[in-house]
Amino acid sequence: MREPVDHYRAIEQLIYRYAESIDSGDIDGLARLFERGQVVSLPSGWQVKGYGSLKDFYLKQIIIYPSTGTPCTAHSVTNVIIDLDQSNGTALARSQFVVRQALEGEHEQVVMSGRYSDQFSCDDNGWYFTQRKILPTYFGDLSRHFRGQLDRTPAGQIAAPDNVVAFAGDKRLN
Q1: Which one is the CATH code of 4-150: 3.40.50.150, 3.40.50.300, 3.30.590.10, 3.10.450.50?
Q2: SnoaL-like domain spans which residues (predicted)?
Q3: Which end of the chain has the least Cβ crowding within 10 Å, N or C?
Q4: Domains of the chain: which residue ranges?
Q5: Which segments within the chain are labelled E, that is strand?
């Protein structure tokens, strides 16, 4: 059995690898993080599950620029809090994110920020995502980061209680 600190570091690495995969344009690596999991966006509730579906989804949604092979983004993930249930091999984590984008010849700008709520399980091969919920709280100009339509539910709208993980103090979710 690993030491508890090793569990926390392994989970943190998964959280940060998500950001690194997007920023480096590694859509295959991004989708592999969710081979046994799903990504849900709130409050709309869209969800995509499993490697193949997520890879197809992200290939269609994220704009990759040929000059860099990336979406020209930088995801910053902070305030990572992990609640580990070592006896059951599960963990919950929450964090905040900011996505900045800088295209050639333009100033860097914030295109999105919000929170992640993650669920993990552990087996003999280590920790893995079972679910990532994305709760955007700010939208900038996403037109050069994503194709298609993203949910831009106003901040004052309340999501269905059975479709969210509440964050302490977040009145949108109480």
Answers
A1: 3.10.450.50
A2: 6-133
A3: N
A4: 4-150
A5: 38-41, 46-49, 73-85, 90-101, 109-123, 126-139
The DSSP secondary-structure symbol of 70 reads: B
For 115-174, what is each residue's pLDDT tens digit?
999 999 999 999 999 999 999 998 888 889 988 655 554 333 443 433 333 333 343 332
Beta-carbon neighbour count of residue 102 at 10 Å? 12
Q: Rounded to 5 degrees, what angle do the CA atoms 59, 64, 114 make?
A: 80
The alpha-helical segments, DSSP class H, found in the chain are 4-23, 27-32, 51-61
| Residues 62-114: tens digit of each pLDDT | 999 999 999 999 999 999 999 999 999 999 999 999 999 999 889 999 999 99
Report the length, in residues, of the chain: 174
- The label of the residue with tokens 């920790």 reads 127
Please tell me the distance from the alpha carbon of residue 4 to that of residue 122, in angstroms, as a whole number. Answer: 13
User: What's the burial of 42, exposed, middle or buried (CB within 10 Å: 0-12/13-18/19+)?
Assistant: buried
CA pair distance 18, 37, nearest whole angstrom = 13
DSSP 106: S
